[in-house]
Amino acid sequence: MRHRRLRTLVGVLAAATLAVPLAVTGTTAAQAVGPSVLPVTVTNTTGRGDAVHLYVIGTNLSTGRLGYVTKGGTFTAWPAGSNPPSPAPDVAIAGPPNGGSTTINLPRGFSGRIYFSLGAKLPFFLTPDGLVQPAPWAGGDASRDVLFDWSELTYNDAGLWLNSSQVDMFAIPHAVTVTGASGATKRTGDVVTNGRDQVINALKAQPGWSGSVVTRSDGTVLRVLAPGKAAGAGLLSATYLDPYITSAWNAYTSKTLTVVPFGDQPNTRYFGRTSGDVMRFTNASGAQVAAFTKPSSADVWGCDGNLHAPNDQVVGPIARTLCAALNRGTLGTVDTQPSTNAADFYRSSPTNQYAKVIHAAMADGKAYAFAFDDVGAFESLVHDGDPRSAGLVLSPFTGGGTGGGGGGGGGTTAGALVNANGPCLDNDNRSTANGNKIQIWGCNGTVAQQWSFVEAGSTLRVQGKCLDIAGGATGNGTKVQLWDCNSTGAQVWIPQSGGAYRNPQSGRCLDVPSGSTTSGTQVQIWDCNGSAAQRWTLS
């Protein structure tokens, strides 16, 4: 199954970007689906004393009606609105205090958002056409002084998709979890220690970007606006990315861009060349299938305008690939797209500093920093086709590195995994390909070295994948690699009192061969012996 991120207008005065996954039709076996009402646990670890208000707002997929969901899981359509917009009914659900949890229920057949505000409630309004979503980047919006954020979701007969979103802004960092029928939990969205401050301070220090950090009169930083929203509000140059776009676009006047939009269809390829301001794409037979006029900065920030991606199987996939490449700064230098080597991202000048610092602040490197950040699977999304529970964990505003609770996710500790001999455990070249080498390297603070130990399942994770013993083998010297988290014994690591990580299936420990300190040395399993080669500190 694949899913696509569709952009949907909800209401008439503010645009909402919702994650609406669609299954690719075909011959598939019948599968189990989750319960008619799915429990979603919201856990508050912000460290703040503000009251938390929750809102579950979106669309009934059976009727197409817009409405809200009660704490018990009942969908209710909105009453008729008016012009000018009238206040919507107060549908806030009381959220958890700091250190607490609140469980709400989500009916199957629903797509929308879970909003959460700290302190003040969120104002919503109704027109005859639907709900007006909060848009604090717009002048005079009633939500501009409210500290709030949201996650996006779809729950249908194909399962649950739940993601933290930074497409419009970064305000309240939060993790998302889902637990399936097997009991395995998937989790993403955790920030590194002091991750919120890291994002705020990085953007404040970046020339031209400080205006995107919005601070309330009492000194509270409310949000960091995504570049499209900041530019629209006059807080970032409207032409900021234009020099890079022109350079990348013109690169293909003299060479060919190859787009391979589907990871499971490597032979589906399109070939782009630029003439003037237009990049034209042909298929393998040489027939033209798409053409794009050079986009503006606004088009790139929004993945729209000249990069509009229709819901088809040719033009849309090419457009989303182009947009991801331009946001990540790889178009013009990486000639087969999409590029999935995160080491190449955000090196262009100028570049999308917002997306760069958001991803750097995530424990697994994954985020939804722009609309098509799911190209190459770099998005902060969890999915399960047979879910039993889910969760949102509102992360610490300062400090942190630990979290837990939501949806049975268990505790999580995040940071660099430092060997007693000095180097750090490192995901080679930041690649997320299955089988990628796990090695030692000089500690450098990159996402390739931001490991999370997830107590539920006792897994070590980096960039959304798990530390795995190749082939599930148990012999001394078996190499350790990166792999999709799959709840097998090859991915279980039990911390030992001396700092070792023991794999129960093999009875052996995570080990650096011969205690090497040479960067690039691939780690292995070996008989547990208490040596420095097997002692690790996660901090």
UniProtKB/TrEMBL annotation:
<dbReference type="GO" id="GO:0016798">
    <property type="term" value="F:hydrolase activity, acting on glycosyl bonds"/>
</dbReference>
<dbReference type="GO" id="GO:0030246">
    <property type="term" value="F:carbohydrate binding"/>
</dbReference>
<dbReference type="InterPro" id="IPR042517">
    <property type="entry name" value="Glyco_hydro_64_N_2"/>
</dbReference>
<dbReference type="InterPro" id="IPR035992">
    <property type="entry name" value="Ricin_B-like_lectins"/>
</dbReference>
<dbReference type="Pfam" id="PF00652">
    <property type="entry name" value="Ricin_B_lectin"/>
</dbReference>
<comment type="similarity">
    <text>Belongs to the glycosyl hydrolase 64 family.</text>
</comment>
<keyword id="KW-0732">Signal</keyword>
<dbReference type="InterPro" id="IPR032477">
    <property type="entry name" value="Glyco_hydro_64"/>
</dbReference>
<dbReference type="InterPro" id="IPR037398">
    <property type="entry name" value="Glyco_hydro_64_fam"/>
</dbReference>
<feature type="active site" description="Proton acceptor">
    <location>
        <position position="168"/>
    </location>
</feature>
<dbReference type="Pfam" id="PF16483">
    <property type="entry name" value="Glyco_hydro_64"/>
</dbReference>
<protein>
    <recommendedName>
        <fullName>GH64 domain-containing protein</fullName>
    </recommendedName>
</protein>
<feature type="active site" description="Proton donor">
    <location>
        <position position="152"/>
    </location>
</feature>
<keyword id="KW-0378">Hydrolase</keyword>
<dbReference type="InterPro" id="IPR037176">
    <property type="entry name" value="Osmotin/thaumatin-like_sf"/>
</dbReference>
<keyword id="KW-0326">Glycosidase</keyword>
<feature type="domain" description="GH64">
    <location>
        <begin position="35"/>
        <end position="396"/>
    </location>
</feature>
<feature type="signal peptide">
    <location>
        <begin position="1"/>
        <end position="32"/>
    </location>
</feature>
<dbReference type="InterPro" id="IPR000772">
    <property type="entry name" value="Ricin_B_lectin"/>
</dbReference>
